[in-house]
Amino acid sequence: MTLNGVLQIVIYLVALVLITKPLGLYMARVYQGQSVGINRVFHPVERLIYTLCGTREDEEMNWKTYALSLLLFSVTGVIFLYVLQRIQGSLPLNPQGFGAISPDSSFNTAASFVTNTNWQGYGGETTMSYLTQMLGLAVQNFVSAASGMAVLVALIRAIARRTTDTIGNFWVDLTRTTLYILLPLSIAFALILVSQGVIQNFNSYKDVALLQKTSYQNPVLDADGNPVKDASGNPTTQNVDVTTQALPMGPAASQIAIK
Asked: What is the C-alpha separation between 77 and 79, in angstroms, rounded?
């Protein structure tokens, strides 16, 4: 391992230790429903979400209802993300005109992101529209992580309370995790990335000239798309010069920040 690699690990561990107590105290106040300084901004949104979900801030659940709420939310997320990928070709914010993603890839991505494993079996810049990335993948980067954090908080409550039958409210824990913890952190990191030059836009991809021309061998095909072979039976190729490169655009800073 290089010295630079060791320094990065050390800096990461030091930063992790330094933020553990203040961030932990902040999170404890969030889950206990106490003021954390940004309630004036997010509390109206929080109350609106509870109204839409048909729940109350002070209404708690037993473990069965909590688990069922988690499963229903996750199944809904898989279905929504799957459908979004399948119809992205007819939706806006798709300047590259990407078509529908294949059924198997759509299901794989949906199941992966909803379970917070985020396995990417696709090329994002050549597959996903901006809308799919923002409304589908970015949302799951928030709520799948928030779901896991909510389950952990519910477990802590169950251990701490011992004799009670309730362990909190899944919808309240999910909402507070997203609004008061994950969203502020993501906004802060996104602004830092933008200040350092990371792009954040909805522009089409840009073709830029290369500083140094390169080339590659491309197979020669006939009218039916079959490879043309020489007298020895080997596929023939032709030299192709490359003078430009397509640079992906899009909301990159916000996507990176939430990962």
From this structure: 6
Name residues whose C-beta falls within 8 Å of residue 105's C-beta, 6 or more positions apart in sequence.
85, 121, 122, 127
> Which amino acid is present at 118?
N
Identify the H or E element spanning 24.
helix 3-31
Given a contact cutoff of 8 angstroms between Cβ atoms, the answer to whether 89 and 99 are in contact is yes
Q: 209 - beta bridge partners?
A: 244
Amino acid (one-letter) located at 183 = L
Measured in whole angstroms, how far is the alpha carbon of residue 16 from the centre of its chain? 22
For the stretch 153-167, pLDDT in tens is 999 999 988 788 899
Q: In 10 A of CB 184, how many CB atoms? A: 16
Element (H, E) at 149: helix 139-161
First to last CA, the chain: 25
Segment 199-229, tens digit of pLDDT: 888 888 888 888 888 888 888 888 777 888 8
